[in-house]
Design a protein that fits this description.
With 505 residues, this protein is of the alpha+beta class. The chain has a five-stranded antiparallel sheet, with helices on one face. Strands 20, 21, 22 and 23 form a four-stranded antiparallel sheet that branches. Helix 4 runs antiparallel to helix 5. The longest helix has 22 residues. The chain is globular, with a radius of gyration of 25 Å.
Length: 505
C-alpha cells in the first residue's frame, strides 16, 4: 500500500546481496526502511521473502525485537515495496564488544537474548541468523534483535532450505532433510559467547551449546538462561555463606546483649514491605474461565504452574457504572478488565480477540467474526454495537481509544509493583489521587497462555491496518506493558488480549 510520504530519506546503501536500507524521517520520528535492490524488485521469490519477513515481524511483539509497522510502496525510492520498522538507536553487538565491558555486562546481554529467543521459539519462530551484527545494544543496555530475513515459522518449506551465516550456522541448518528448531539459534549463541571471552566458569555452557548433535544442547532458551545465572553466581556462593555466618554471629551476640529473642523484628522491622495504598481490585483482572470453584486457579504453562486468585463473583454481565473509577481524567476507568463468560479457541477468561465481541472465534478464517473485523478495520468501533466492552458489560461501557490511553499514560503516575500472591503489574495513580491496577496478564493464543506475569497486552480501538496477505488477516493497536516500561504496537487481531473499559463523562 502507498504510505504517507517521508520528509527525509537517507540511503544507507547495500545491506545484502538482495536488499537495501534507508533511514527515513516522518512525523518527527526516524524509521528504517528495508526493501529489494532495483534489479530484484520484479523477482517473485524475492518479493515473497520480503513479505514473509514483514508478516513474521508483525506477528512478533516483544520489546527485544525490532518493531515492524507497515509494508509500503515508496515513490522516493523508485516505487518498490519497503518494510517500515522502528529505528533502533545504539550499536550492534559486534561494535559493542569492541569496547571494554566487564563480563557481568556481557552476561546481562546474553540473558536478555535468552528472553527474546524464548519468546520467538514459543511463537514457533526460528531466527536462523543469530550473530553479533543482528543484535543491537541501545544506550540503556537493552538488547534488540533485528533482521528477520531468514526467520521462519511453523513448518514452512523454507525450514528445509539451508540458510544462515557460516560461522554461526548449526550443522542441521546445512541440511535440506532436517526441520530446524530453536536449538539452532542456541548453537549460534554458543559462538557469540566464545567471542565474548567470558571467565572459565562459562566454558561448560559454551561447550554444551556448540554440540554438533542438537539433542545434547539445552532444549530451550530458558534452560540456557538458568545455566548462565548459575555460572555467574558460582563465584559468589562461598562469599554469600561467609557473610551469612558473620551476620548470624553478630545478630546472636547483639540479641544476647539486648536480652531479646525477637532478632528479626529488632534488626529488620516486621518483614513486611511498605507499599502505596492499593486499589480495591487487584486479583480480579485475570479471571480465567474455569469450572473450578476454588479460590485460586492454577494454569500449567510449560510444566510450570502459575497461580492466580479467582474472583468470588462473575465479571460477565451488566456492570454498575457507579463502579467506574474517577482518576481526574476525561473518561472514567473500569476497576477491572472485561470478563469472558465462555471458553473459545483464542479467548478465555479476561481475554478477547480484537473486534470479536462474540467470544466465539474458532479460527482465523471464522466467518462469524469477519463482519466485526471488516467494520472496525474502516473506522473506530469504540462505543458501537461491535464493541467488546459494551457487548459484555452493557450500558455505556466501551473499549478505550488511543486518546484515552494517551491521557492515562501522560497524566498519571505509573509504578511497577509486585503485590504478594497477585500477578505483577502497574499501579496507576490519577491526578486526583485515585488509582487502578493493570496486571501483566500475558495473552491467550489458541489453546495456550503466554507471558503470564511477565507482560501485559491491552487492546485499543483505532482504524485497523490491513496486512498484506489474506492468511494474516488484520492487525490492531495494543498497549504492551513490560517491567521496564510500555509501548504501542500492532498485533494480529486473533490474539487474546485484555480489555479495560472506560465511560465517557
Amino acid at each position: 500500500m502507498m504510505g504517507k510520504p517521508f520528509d527525509t530519506l537517507i540511503e544507507e546503501g547495500s545491506y545484502s546481496r538482495y536488499n537495501r536500507l534507508a533511514k527515513a524521517l516522518r512525523d518527527g520520528r526516524w524509521w528504517m526502511l528495508k526493501g529489494l535492490k532495483p534489479e530484484h524488485e520484479d523477482d517473485p521469490v524475492m518479493r515473497a521473502l520480503l513479505r514473509k519477513e514483514f508478516n513474521l515481524g508483525m506477528m512478533l511483539r516483544h520489546p527485544g525485537i525490532v518493531g515492524f509497522v507497515s509494508l509500503e510502496l515508496v515513490p522516493q525510492l523508485g516505487g518498490g515495496e519497503f518494510i517500515v520498522q522502528e529505528w533502533v538507536e545504539g550499536v550492534t553487538l559486534k561494535r559493542w564488544l569492541e569496547c571494554d565491558h566487564k563480563w557481568p555486562e556481557k552476561v546481562n546481554v546474553l540473558q536478555q537474548m535468552c528472553e527474546v529467543l524464548d519468546y520467538c521459539h514459543r511463537m514457533n519462530v526460528v531466527h536462523r541468523d543469530i550473530k553479533p551484527s543482528n543484535i543491537m545494544i541501545t544506550p540503556d543496555e537493552r538488547v534488540v534483535l533485528i533482521d528477520l530475513g531468514l526467520a521462519v515459522a511453523g513448518n514452512q518449506s523454507a525450514f528445509r532450505t539451508p540458510a544462515g551465516t557460516e560461522r554461526y550456522m548449526a550443522p542441521e541448518q546445512r541440511r535440506e532433510d532436517v526441520i530446524v528448531d530453536g536449538r539452532a539459534d542456541l548453537y549460534a549463541v554458543g559462538f557469540i559467547m566464545q567471542e565474548m571471552e567470558l571467565p572459565q566458569r562459562f566454558k561448560r555452557v559454551i561447550s554444551l551449546l556448540q554440540q554438533p548433535d542438537r539433542n545434547k544442547r539445552p532444549s530451550d532458551a530458558r534452560l540456557l538462561h538458568e545455566a548462565l545465572a548459575h555460572a555467574a553466581s558460582s563465584h559468589r556462593r562461598w562469599f554469600k555463606w561467609a557473610v551469612m555466618f558473620l551476620l548470624t554471629t553478630v545478630c546472636l551476640a547483639t540479641a544476647y546483649a539486648l536480652g531479646t529473642k525477637d532478632i528479626g523484628t529488632h534488626f529488620w522491622g516486621t518483614g513486611k514491605l511498605l507499599a502505596p495504598t492499593l486499589p480495591d481490585y487487584l486479583t480480579d483482572t485475570v479471571n480465567y474461565w474455569s469450572t473450578d470453584t476454588a479460590h485460586y486457579i492454577t494454569v500449567i504453562k510449560d510444566s510450570i504452574p502459575y497461580t492466580f486468585p479467582k474472583m468470588s463473583y462473575d465479571i460477565p454481565g451488566d456492570i454498575d457504572e457507579d463502579a467506574a473509577v474517577d482518576l481526574g481524567l476525561n473518561v472514567l476507568w473500569a476497576p477491572f478488565n472485561v470478563g469472558c463468560d465462555r471458553p473459545s479457541l483464542f479467548m478465555t477468561g479476561g481475554y478477547y480477540g480484537y473486534g470479536d465481541p462474540t467470544g466465539k472465534l474458532t479460527s482465523i478464517d471464522d466467518k462469524s467474526c469477519s463482519m466485526y473485523w471488516n467494520v472496525s478495520s474502516q473506522e473506530d468501533y469504540s462505543g458501537t454495537e461491535y464493541d467488546i466492552a459494551r457487548v459484555q458489560w452493557g450500558g455505556r461501557w466501551r473499549t478505550p481509544r488511543r486518546e484515552d490511553m494517551d491521557e492515562l499514560i501522560n497524566r498519571c503516575q505509573w509504578t511497577y509493583i509486585q503485590p504478594e500472591g497477585v500477578a505483577p503489574g502497574y499501579l496507576i495513580i490519577g491526578p486526583n489521587g485515585n488509582r487502578i491496577y493493570l496486571p501483566m496478564a500475558g495473552f491467550r493464543y489458541e489453546f495456550d497462555y503466554y507471558e503470564l506475569g511477565k507482560m501485559g497486552y491491552y487492546w485499543i480501538t483505532s482504524p485497523r491496518e490491513e496486512k498484506v496477505t489474506d492468511l494474516s488477516g488484520f492487525v490492531g493497536l495494543a498497549l504492551t506493558l513490560v517491567p521496564g516500561g510500555l509501548q504501542y504496537g500492532y498485533a494480529i487481531v486473533n490474539n487474546g488480549f485484555s480489555v479495560r473499559p472506560v465511560l465517557d463523562r
